[in-house]
UniProtKB/TrEMBL annotation:
It is found in: Mitochondrion. Belongs to the pseudouridine synthase RluA family. This is Pseudouridylate synthase RPUSD4, mitochondrial. GO terms for biological process: mitochondrial tRNA pseudouridine synthesis; mRNA pseudouridine synthesis; positive regulation of mitochondrial translation; rRNA pseudouridine synthesis. The lineage of its organism: Eukaryota, Metazoa, Chordata, Craniata, Vertebrata. CDD domains: PseudoU_synth_RluA_like (cd02869). Keywords: Isomerase, Mitochondrion, Transit peptide. It comes from Panthera tigris altaica (Siberian tiger). Residues 105-276 form the Pseudouridine synthase RsuA/RluA-like domain. Catalyzes uridine to pseudouridine isomerization (pseudouridylation) of different mitochondrial RNA substrates. Acts on position 1397 in 16S mitochondrial ribosomal RNA (16S mt-rRNA). This modification is required for the assembly of 16S mt-rRNA into a functional mitochondrial ribosome. As a component of a functional protein-RNA module, consisting of RCC1L, NGRN, RPUSD3, RPUSD4, TRUB2, FASTKD2 and 16S mt-rRNA, controls 16S mt-rRNA abundance and is required for intra-mitochondrial translation. Acts on position 39 in mitochondrial tRNA(Phe).
Length: 377
């Protein structure tokens, strides 16, 4: 919806510098004084300020849920909204606390949920914006900005590699491009894949979804299809990309599973598409790929909702449970050995594991213990 103009609100007369009508004077004073201090306040900034004030008021008046899981969901929603409004210095400080590895060539951070890597429409703050500040925090005011080596989706958490020098960033990017980096993700799926381990090797293509909510999604583009009970070769799209994902069930119940995913290729939304459309096991909190035909909150079974302590009406607030757990970088530059980088899952991920009666592997028992403490809260 286009932002309303100031004239439509009766707040400002273009070129006159006067507020209209005595009944508007009191309401206009904060805006007029602001405009006098920093020039004419345009309609876009005014609309953004009004929306921000409305959202803050809504947050203040929102009742605090008694259910601890619903409280945690509400906190996460508020946290992701605040990430877009915090000062860049505050965000850089938060990222510095999440550093999991640092040497003379690389800095590795644990990317938080809901934070985009790059800017774009509607993005007020992203990781690339604060890299110069983060570099100065780590090496002093004369430090050159850090460089991105790869990207993660906004909703994905976990291992993210930054480089001090542009040349080093290019070398790491080349390792990713040539598939020399071992990448392992953890995901909570709302169903259990059969078989419990395997490889999904189905090309992926972006298509337009027709209907009242017209939009684009990545989807499968298989080389074969069923025709009257027979397997026949399908017409392949020239825009389809080869996509290969290796998966393994680490823990499961009747209705959910903790999966380890290893993408061999790096296609947009590959893991989400392969799990949802290839294995019929959408990731918990994947509201985009749980249904092909529409954009709507993920539909969860009654049993899953009960374990999570949520109603279906609140399912839209469930975050995507996809975590970049591990990266293994081969020897590079002065480093003669491979670099094994591991990030613990975020708190909401651990809490969901416990709620769904899923167990982490034995070597990650410390994280499992933390999930137990979260459940007791």
């Amino acid at each position: 919806m286009a932002a309303p103009s100031c004239n439509a609100l009766g707040l400002w007369v273009r070129g006159s510098g006067q507020c209209l009508g005595s009944r508007f004077i009191l309401a206009c004073q904060p805006f007029c004084s602001s405009a006098a201090a920093s020039g004419t306040l345009n309609a876009q900034k005014l609309a953004e300020k009004l929306r921000s004030q409305k959202q803050e008021q809504k947050t203040k008046t929102q009742p605090v849920p008694t259910n601890p899981v619903q409280r945690r969901v509400q906190e996460l929603v508020r946290f992701t909204q605040q990430l877009q409004r915090v000062h860049p210095n505050v965000l850089a400080k938060a990222l510095s606390r999440g550093i999991v590895h640092q040497d003379k060539d690389l800095v590795v951070i644990n990317k938080p949920y809901g934070l985009p890597v790059h800017g774009g429409p509607g993005v007020q703050l992203c990781i690339s914006d604060v890299l110069p500040i983060l570099a100065k925090m780590l090496r002093g005011h004369k430090a050159e900005p850090l460089h991105l080596c790869h990207r993660l989706d906004k909703e994905t958490t976990g291992v993210m590699v930054l480089a001090w020098e542009k040349e080093m960033a290019h070398q790491v990017q080349e390792l990713f491009r040539t598939r020399q980096v071992v990448k392992k993700y953890w995901a909570i799926a709302v169903r259990v894949p059969v078989p419990s381990a395997g490889v999904v090797d189905i090309p992926i293509v972006e298509k337009e979804v027709q209907g009242p909510q017209q939009h684009y999604k990545m989807t499968l583009s298989p080389g074969y299809r069923m025709d009257n009970g027979k397997m026949v070769r399908a017409r392949t799209s020239r825009n389809a990309h080869v996509a290969v994902t290796q998966y393994q069930v680490l823990s499961s119940t009747l209705s959910s599973a903790l999966l380890e995913l290893q993408p061999i290729t790096g296609i947009k939304h590959q893991l989400r598409v392969h799990l949802s459309f290839g294995l019929d096991c959408p990731i918990l909190g994947d509201h985009k790929y749980s249904d092909w035909n529409k954009l709507a909150p993920q539909k969860l079974s009654v049993g899953t909702l009960k374990k999570l302590g949520l109603k279906q009406a609140k399912a839209r607030h469930i975050p995507l449970h996809l975590h970049a757990r591990q990266l293994v970088l081969p020897a590079l530059g002065s480093r003669k050995e491979e670099l094994n980088l591991v990030c613990k899952p975020p708190r909401y991920f651990l809490c969901s594991l416990r709620r769904l009666d899923l167990r982490m592997p034995s070597q990650d028992q410390s994280g499992d213990d933390e999930a137990g403490r979260l459940r007791a809260q």
